[in-house]
Task: structure prediction
Amino acid sequence: MSSHVVEPILLASTSPQRRAILEQLGLPFDVVAPDYEEHDPPDADVYDLVREHARGKARSVAQLGSSHPPVLGIDTAVEVGGAILGKPSSLDEAERMLERLAGKTHTVVSGLCLLTAGWEVVEHEATSVTFRELTPREVAHHLAHGEWKGRAGAYAIQGRGAALVERIEGDYLNVVGLPAALLVRLLAERFSGTYGYG
Result:
């Protein structure tokens, strides 16, 4: 690959947060919606689950042709007390999630799959997030804005969800939706210099 022509990474996600993070990192990319259906068994291991989903999303995009730019698949879940919290399907479910997270530490786990025609690497990143104690009024106030929709754990830390958080340990951008430090490390290792890292 010549140094002046850099292939854009194919992001197997329609998430605006993930697009924004790649822009923040200065990475060239194109967005391709993954053709992948997620199934979350109730007894799944959260690390296995997000890795499997990330791989599934990346592979669904890579099948478009045998030769393709690097494909990036990401999946994020929230784990608390041994239970995996995905995206709430209703206001009631979102309320139960926030009540469960209040005053506790949970783990935001992302699986990341980087895939080329020649190789595939799948890793994960975990960030600990502690919520402060929340009153029923605060939970209702948060839910009223609708930000819980489509968010694992029913909150968005880069939005109003920041007000729920007392402490965070680890990669902040992982909680937003893309484990940036992990991605940069992999790009530095696998494409030294190509994308400005390594």
Residues 36 and 57 are 6 Å apart (CA to CA).
